Amino acid sequence: MAMNKNTIFGWASFLTFLVGAALVLLGVLKYKDYAIGFSVTGIGFFFISWVFNALKGRV
């Protein structure tokens, strides 16, 4: 399977979204004392994922 730029951006976007979701869930469910920090970092990962998705087909 050959991976072009769009495929790489798609996978990067998906994996970054998963990391962001995991951080938010860790903050909410396990580390309640640090929930704000985990959530802010997870939302940052969501934004990076959105940027990677927006770059598909443009670079």
UniProtKB/TrEMBL annotation:
InterPro entries cross-referenced by the UniProt entry: CAL67264-like
Transmembrane segments: 7-28, 34-55
Keyword set, alphabetical order: Membrane, Transmembrane, Transmembrane helix
Record-given protein name: Uncharacterized protein
